[in-house]
């Protein structure tokens, strides 16, 4: 028997609908699943520690070989809610932006928007640990995931990067997709896709067993995150990747 496929997924609330159907699913017989934040699993896929991961699409150019495996992604067709530039001052007054160490795609997206869309003259500051307390005065911060849903309750100015991208390009955006660093058996891919779909067909169950004190998850899963990797999303992804050359 072939060895088990090592799979890594993002540990944020946005991934729960995709992972819900994996419990008790027969695909689990041929895979093992670990979870971490996006920049970590990106590193694991690049280094070959895992075979398949829900990785930030911005790391695609770093992979020697890549295969987009499933029909699902972490995407958006408008405001995504959990990828935002947070600030105490309006966009034009921002001087420095703290970048989220957990992100790869959103950091790259922010830089594209700052240069090409908003045309701001700002300094970017890398982070390695908690930095949300540093978002003060003219120092803004990019925050993603569950921490962004919390930051929404704190910062007076919120610039949603999903919304900004759609305004800029008229295309949807893909933050993360299931990508493998080697070809995988067709039968595995079929079962993997099937498992991804189950939670999306049972969103009330997914919402009831997760819950967030900060944001309405039904809204998040149905109005903000868009999970289908449609042709338009692939087009948006190619457009985004063309800026990273
Ligand atoms: C929408 C989101 O998409 C995420 C953003 C990522 C990134 O910026 O690299 C990677 C994975 C996604 O889970 C989010 O986390 O809020």
TrEMBL record:
> A GO molecular function for this record?
hydro-lyase activity
Query: Per its UniProt entry, what is the enzyme's top EC class, as one word?
Result: lyase
- Catalytic activity field: chorismate = 3-[(1-carboxyvinyl)-oxy]benzoate + H2O
| Entry's Gene Ontology BP terms | menaquinone biosynthetic process
Q: Which UniProt keywords apply?
A: Lyase, Menaquinone biosynthesis
Enzyme Commission identifier(s): 4.2.1.151
Pathway(s) it belongs to: Quinol/quinone metabolism; menaquinone biosynthesis
Q: What does this protein do?
A: Catalyzes the dehydration of chorismate into 3-[(1-carboxyvinyl)oxy]benzoate, a step in the biosynthesis of menaquinone (MK, vitamin K2).
Q: Which family does it belong to?
A: Belongs to the MqnA/MqnD family. MqnA subfamily.
Protein name as catalogued: Chorismate dehydratase
